[in-house]
Backbone:
DNA sequence: CTTAACTTTCAATAATTATTGAAAGTTTTA
DNA sequence: TAAAACTTTCAATAATTATTGAAAGTTAAG
């Protein structure tokens, strides 16, 4: 496999992985391209290399900035924006967890809390099953939330070695 | 909020959460419905309550069985299949992690391994950046894979208390 | 066997989500 | 201030993904 084949396959692979873990396919592809680029790229570079439109490139670069997965780099003597990826993948992972915790877990916890207050006959089979299910789920979601919160505060090796110790 | 409102909101919430964590919206909704149902439901019950077609109900129930998130229950004197959800949410979470590890992480690790073997000038800036990026990613993905592998073997409290100890 | 009860499949269609590209907006330079 | 260089927006459109429902398939009972 030569450089170009490998590059395309990498962008494709990273895009697929990203989209299955909650970041959009194109955003992950742009990130992949930036990851393997030794130098910062402009919007046009991204457009050319991924064959996407200006609007699309702009949108996804902006989203990457929002997620903290890429940074702007201004080159003196050039008015264009250039972009570089966060290349510490552990930091990338933590950043994604952090964003998704905020965007997805928090609203769910709020919704679940509300749901427990359902009015009705507390001895009804359905009512009991409902409150029980919601309470159980809330407990697990809270624990997952807690785990993610801790994970983003630990470094790469600490979390792995902590888990490992449990099996020594 | 009365029972029906709460039920609908719960199904909606669980569907949204599911779809953002990699299981299809409708599959998560069917699972939600089964979760709060005190008794096993038939395909028709699911069709009626979620207002979805027979084909769709069948497909999603089958997928839930595949993922190990629901079970068939046969009632004597009835030829229909009835379904109940796995109600231990920690088990549900572990099951989802297990399936996604198999379906998504393993293929990515294989692809990354292949990519490291890219042919070309090892001193070229691009080539070096590429191999470095792929190697870094592989390292983190392997660690995440390891962590998930351990997580699905631990019980609910062990993993949380292990993380907690690191902060005491 | 044959019929009835039920489940599965799949091509057509609908719904959703992503992408384009031209126009509007912004910033910088001279 | 004007014009050039660049970025952002957004309505139209394309691509993708999910859903339907009728037909085919399967299983069990009579």
Residues:
């Amino acid at each position: 496999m030569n450089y170009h084949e490998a590059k395309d396959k990498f962008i494709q692979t990273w895009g697929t992985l990203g989209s299955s873990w909650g970041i959009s396919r194109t955003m992950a592809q742009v990130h992949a391209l930036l990851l393997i680029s030794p130098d910062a790229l402009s919007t046009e570079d991204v457009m050319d290399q991924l064959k996407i439109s200006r609007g699309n490139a702009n949108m996804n670069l902006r989203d990457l900035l929002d997620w903290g997965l890429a940074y702007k780099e201004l080159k003196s003597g050039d008015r264009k924006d250039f972009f570089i990826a966060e290349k510490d993948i552990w930091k990338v992972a933590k950043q994604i967890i952090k964003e998704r915790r905020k965007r997805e877990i928090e609203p769910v916890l709020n919704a679940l809390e509300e749901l427990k207050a359902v009015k009705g006959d507390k001895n009804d089979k359905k009512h009991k099953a409902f409150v029980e299910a919601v309470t159980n789920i809330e407990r697990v979601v809270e624990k997952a939330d807690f785990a993610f919160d801790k994970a983003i505060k630990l470094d790469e090796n600490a979390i792995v070695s902590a888990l490992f110790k449990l099996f020594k």
User: Anything to note?
Assistant: Chain B touches chain A through 66 residues (CB under 8 Å). DSSP finds seven helices and three strands in chain B.
